[in-house]
Write a structure and sequence with these properties.
mainly alpha; two-stranded antiparallel sheet; ABC transporter involved in vitamin B12 uptake, BtuC; 11 helices; 2 strands
Length: about 290
């Protein structure tokens, strides 16, 4: 029984981090229909910011998190203006963004690899290797703190989207871009802000990832499958669905890793992506596509 509780706790703790990693990807797709394959490489950039801030100045990753988020949000503004704004009205926009973001991911990997090499790194604050013990069960402090911070950020995002003055046009654009524009919503500004927020969330996730996982520039290819499985299972564009899927798949992967073997844990996300696309391609909370 203790093994089951222990495995579930570890899965839930990591689920919070995965949820934050996928939230920005889901937001960007929901508002702009951008399939951002470069999202994990942007998370990687946030992880390197946290790593070097800790190594050079001893700044805790949790404290540098807002800085990483702000830097990546600014990067998102530049990327949107330079890469994504021009063809936003194209009928083939989503298909084009797959190629654009794939190329961007390659560029990011090359830049990070050139600057930081492909050495595996991990940020190591004291709590990253410490744990709380309750009877026979332990809760890793690093994963717990990362999960709690992730849920706090996601909750703040949900409140912003639901209750803020700028959240209304973002939600309207997500539901129907053309109708929102007809009602006077500045869709281009909403898209710019949403992309900046989504990339900023990647920076925040990167700061947490830096002490939860080891990372190196090419790691983003593994993460893109994990994140796409969360977004597809939850429903493309549904942040709530992505969060729920993150916890479901993270706990499931933890049990697979415990009972079958650690090398099979990541395969859980690959299989989930394959099965969801076959059985329910719209995901848990996505809209069912209409046949022409």
């Amino acid at each position: 029984m203790a093994d089951i509780v222990q495995t579930a706790i570890l899965g839930l703790a990591l689920g919070g981090v995965y949820a934050l990693m996928g939230a920005g990807l889901s937001l960007v797709f929901g508002v702009m229909r951008i399939v951002n394959l470069a999202h994990p490489s942007l998370i990687m950039a946030g992880a390197y910011i946290a790593y070097w801030a800790f190594r050079l100045a001893g700044v805790d990753p949790l404290l540098i998190l807002p800085v990483a988020a702000a830097i990546l949000a600014g990067t998102g503004v530049l990327l949107y203006k330079l890469v994504f704004e021009r063809e936003a009205r194209s009928a083939k926009y989503s298909e084009m963004t797959v190629l654009l973001t794939f190329a961007l991911a390659m560029v990011m990997e090359g830049l990070l690899g050139t600057v930081f090499t492909n050495t595996q790194r991990v940020t190591s604050p004291d709590y990253a290797t410490d744990a709380f013990f309750i009877a026979d069960v332990f809760i890793p402090k690093g994963q717990l703190y990362a999960g709690m911070v992730s849920l706090g950020i996601i909750s703040a995002l949900a409140l912003f989207l639901k209750h803020s003055r700028f959240g209304y046009p973002i939600r309207a654009t997500t539901q129907n871009r053309e109708a929102a524009e007809l009602l006077g919503v500045n869709v281009n500004l909403v898209s710019l802000a949403s992309f900046a927020i989504g990339v900023g969330l990647a920076g925040a996730a990167g700061a947490l990832v830096s002490f939860v996982f080891s990372f190196f520039p090419s790691k983003h290819w593994e993460w893109i499958v994990i994140l796409m499985s969360l977004v597809v299972l939850g429903g493309m564009g549904s942040i709530f669905g992505t969060v729920l899927a993150a916890f479901i798949l993270s706990v499931l992967a933890a049990f697979v890793g415990f009972y079958v073997g650690a090398v099979w844990s990541t395969l859980t996300f690959f299989v989930a992506l394959f099965v969801v696309l076959l059985v329910r391609p719209q995901g848990l909370f996505g809209e069912k596509p209409e046949l022409a």
